[in-house]
Amino acid sequence: MIVSSALRKRIAVNISFSSTRLLTSRKFSPSSSVLLSQIPSSSPPPPGFITGEVLDHAVDLRNSRPGDRIDVPYELTITDAMQGLWNSAFHSQNRISTSRVFARKLNLQDRVMPFGLVLFLTTSMTHADAAKVQVGFGNVVYHWPAYSGDTFTKSFEVNAIRNTSDGNHTVINFTCQLYNQRGQLCMTADKRMLFEFSVHGSSLPNYDPVDPTSNQLFRDHLISKAEIISDIGSQSLSTLTTNQLIFHQMNRSLTHSQSQQLASLVRLTHPRHFDTRRYDTKTEIMIPGGLVLGMAMSCSSRDLHEILHEELLSCSYVHSLHPGDVVSGMSYIKSVTSSGPWDLESVVVRTVAVKNLDLVRDLDSERGLPIDLFW
Fold first, then answer.
1. E-strand stretches of the chain
2. Contact 163, 85 (CB under 8 A)
3. Confidence label for 206 from pLDDT (cuts 50, 70 and 90)
4. What is residue 62's predicted lDDT score, i.e. its pLDDT?
5. Which of 4, 156, 162, 375 shows the greatest Cβ crowding within 10 Å of its Cβ?
6. What helix, strand, coil percent values describe the chain, rounded to 5?
7. How many CA atoms lie within 13 A of 228 on its CB side?
8. Of residues 97 and 22, which shows the higher confidence score?
9. For residue 11, which phi and psi values (nearest 5 degrees)?
10. pLDDT at position 2, please?
11. What distance lies between CA 285 and its chain's CA centroid?
12. 57: closest CA among 158, 162, 129?
């Protein structure tokens, strides 16, 4: 047959193997209405042929409700090599993540995994292939230090569902939680995603999880070491003041290979990040949201150096980012508050990242920018 001949010409490798599987049932909370997508059975093939079957591992969220919990059945141990791959793509000189000597002076086990990497790991969903686009993050708290060598598990709770104004899409808010091998909560983050279906009714009542800011063990530990930090000395390169607007000179980009490697690092599976036959690399393949945030933070890292601890209040994705797009950024200092007699201060910053525009060279800075952009 012509079809069979054409298919044979496209076979890249033919593999025969034997494997041993651990058979378990996928677990959700007893009250959860989240179900796996079902694949309808096909009619029998003609004699001498066999019909392929598509196994759909995506979670069907059309029947989910606020309060539903998804316990992800996978475990992932982060190695030094994996952390090194992240550091090779995103610039940072914060000693708490780069210096073992500095970290241990603060009674930490080792260098702490960078905030951006832990957030990317916390919010990455292997079974959310039906999502159209990521909308944003919010309320991200780094509760407990994560280290290379730790083994992580995670869970997601649905806390809000609403239909868009056109009635054809649904925005689902998840609370993502990351745990280490000792069951210690390392990070929580709210994640908003857009799906191409609508739920019954215009909206559903919100589910209010525990306030993540009530658990600040990591931050409180660092504050308790303020005197030691003062003795070590600061490496901050500049003084930050309220109402200051900084144009960052570091522009960043990711190639498609880097994006694929980093997406695979946290086990993302969405075809929008990988399938170049189905999607055009320059206009349709997307950089994952966690990497876009990492690029924005990388742009600002040198000017905001040195950061000990950070939280993400909110993050909104306005336009898609594609491989090769160049990201530049600017940061507005909303407030600066000194913390006691030591060399510590709390800074509230709004960073705006733009693509394919060099803010320092291409923007007429003398004309100024509307202040509303940063509030």
1. 35-36, 59-60, 69-71, 76-77, 131-142, 151-163, 170-179, 185-195, 203-204, 245-247, 252-253, 312-316, 326-338, 345-355
2. no
3. low
4. 80
5. 156
6. 25, 25, 50
7. 12
8. 97
9. -70, 120
10. 47
11. 17
12. 129
Q: Is 222 helix (H, G, I), strand (E, B) or coil?
A: helix
Q: Can you give the length of the chain in residues? A: 375
Structure tokens at 302: 């040198």
Give the helix/strand (H/E) hosting 7. helix 2-10
Phi, psi values for residue 198, rounded to 5°: -120, 150
CA distance linking residue 363 with residue 352, whole number of Å: 14
> What percent of the chain shows pLDDT beyond 70?
83
Residue with tokens 């658990």: 215
Name the token pair of 322: 């594609």
Residue 279 reports pLDDT greater than 70: yes
202-235 CB burial, b ≥16 within 10 A, e <16: eebeebebeebeeebebbeebbebbeebeeeeee
B/e letters for 145-173, b = 16+ CB within 10 Å, e = fewer, are bbbbebebbbbbbbbbbbbeeeeebbbbb
Token representation of residue 59 = 């979670």
What integer pLDDT is reported at residue 39 of this predicted model? 47
Place of tokens 């510590």: 344
3-state secondary structure of 203: strand
Residue of 196 and 289 predicted with greater confidence: 289
pLDDT of residue 1: 43
Model pLDDT, residue 361: 87
Cα gap 120→98, rounded to integer Å? 18
